Amino acid sequence: MTSSQQQIDVSYSVSNEFFELWLDENMHYTCAAYLDGDETLEQAQEKKVGILADYAEVTPDSLVLDIGCGWGSCLEYLARARGVKECHGITLSTAQLEWVHRRQIPGAKAWLQDYATYEPARKYDALISIEMIDHLCSPAQARAGLAVEIYRQYFDTLAKWVEPGACFGFQAILSDRVPRRRKDVEDLAFTADVIFPGGRNPRLEELVMAVRPSWEILELRMQREDYGKTTGEWLRRMRLHEDRIRSTWGDALYEDYERYLDTCVRGFDAQWCGDVQMKLRRCG
Ligand SMILES: C[S@@+](CC[C@H](N)C(=O)[O-])C[C@H]1O[C@@H](n2cnc3c(N)ncnc32)[C@H](O)[C@@H]1O
Question: Which of 8, 17, 22, 242 is surrounded by the most beta carbons within 10 Å?
Fold first, then answer.
């Protein structure tokens, strides 16, 4: 069971123009990689997809699939920066899909498609998925002990779409420590229930168990502090547009997003949450 299309639309289909005001110019909505520390958000986002494309061992001739492709930022990077001739994306958000089509990325195709029912016509050479797994298991399912099984279903399904030896650039937001103050617990619950309904961040150990038996972990990069910086920059940019957001989309939307982004900044700082990139290789 994943977040339903209706729940995904709550998270990502608010309005493309709203997200455009505070994400980077390519509309990455995931943790950027600040490798030097003084990059702009735009540069750090490009480094993030660069690492994942390297992990996936992408070449211009690879047929690449981005699972949970958002507004098409990774597809655009693959086509324009890496010269990939053919890449595909799937998303559950109607507004995102419309935006991907509008970008007219050379060689890219995207569909409104749940990964669980996707049946690729051909095998892929390389896979990328950036913070999509965070939608696959609900808090109630995790409490029922189903998390590893649900994540393993995802990794096993994706493994069928490639040949043994193919690589996968994977990124996920992680849950780590539980906050001690009630206000912090409430803020995290608000973020999960109101901004990302139906979703839940996996724990690192759950992912390490779930990739088996289909995938082998070749590399693992932790980037908790980078997500604090990324969400801090999103919050700073969103605040610059406070008047416009309040007048166009209402006070409640502005206040909900301010509370959520502020919670993220504190959450990554206090280690309630983390972020991981992995290079996975399909087992034979
Ligand atoms: C946090 S966004 C990340 C978007 C993009 N990868 C990026 O880096 O900006 C999560 C994405 O996963 C997609 N998604 C969630 N559940 C999905 C599912 N079951 N099948 C396909 N896509 C899904 C959402 O529609 C959204 O595009």
Answer: 8
Q: Does the Cβ of 132 fall within 6 Å of ligand 1?
A: yes
Q: What is the pLDDT of residue 1?
A: 52
Q: CA-to-CA distance for 42 and 154, rounded, in angstroms? A: 30
Is the CB of residue 89 less than 8 Å from the CB of residue 75? yes
Domain-by-domain residue ranges, the chain?
5-9+17-176+197-223+273-282
Does the beta carbon of 129 sit less than 6 angstroms from any atom of ligand 1? no
pLDDT tens digits along 68-115: 999 999 999 999 999 999 999 999 999 999 999 999 999 999 999 999
Q: Quickly count: other Cβ atoms within 10 Å of residue 54's Cβ.
A: 14
Is the CB of residue 91 less than 8 Å from the CB of residue 70? Answer: yes
Give CA–CA dist 168/174, Å, rounded: 18
- Mean confidence (pLDDT) of the chain: 96
Side-chain-facing half-sphere of 25: CA atoms under 13 Å: 5
Binding site membership of 56 for ligand 1 (Cβ less than 6 Å): no
Q: How remote is the CA of residue 13 from the centroid of ligand 1, in Å?
A: 12
